[in-house]
């Protein structure tokens, strides 16, 4: 069944050898509709980072802070190297075919490379 298909949506942020700076780091266009069921961070070293995720349609591109889907629970590492959130409290988890996700680093210390992995169930 198509609804049982899980897909990883990965986004890598690289500080080119230095601590990752704040601000927008890029966009991904989603080639299917679905629901996000978890968010994980894996960093090159222990440190702290907060990454907000913004979502919008092609017609409203680019997404902005007002389009945040993470409520008050963005993907976060706090003096850690890995994290997993499968609760996604307050998140807007549903997305449509063709929606864009934008990734914005709100804060970072120490970490020079991090992978954000969203697991989604296709609908």
Keywords:
mainly beta, 123 residues
If you had to describe this structure to a student in words, what would you say it looks like?
This protein has 123 residues and is mainly beta. The chain is 0% helix and 58% strand. The relative contact order is 0.42.
**Estimated helix fraction:** under 10%
Q: Which parts are unreliable, with pLDDT below 50 for 5 consecutive residues or more?
A: none
Rg, Cα atoms, Å: 14 Å
First and last CA, distance = 10 Å
Helix-strand category: mainly beta
Largest beta-sheet characterization:
7 strands, antiparallel
Strand content: over 45%
- Average pLDDT works out at 96
Number of strands: 7
Shape: globular
Order of helices and strands: EEEEEEE
So how many helices?
0
């Amino acid at each position: 069944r198509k609804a049982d298909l899980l897909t990883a949506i990965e986004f890598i942020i690289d500080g080119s050898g230095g601590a990752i700076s704040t601000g927008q780091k890029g966009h991904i266009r989603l080639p299917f509709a679905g629901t996000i069921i978890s968010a994980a961070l894996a960093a090159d070293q222990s440190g702290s980072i907060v990454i907000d995720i913004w979502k919008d349609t092609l017609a409203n591109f680019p997404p902005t802070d007002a389009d945040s889907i993470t409520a008050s629970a963005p993907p976060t590492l706090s003096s850690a190297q890995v994290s997993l959130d499968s609760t996604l409290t307050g998140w807007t988890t549903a997305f449509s075919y063709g929606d864009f996700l934008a990734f914005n680093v709100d804060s970072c210390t120490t970490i020079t490379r991090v992978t954000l992995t969203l697991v989604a169930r296709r609908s």
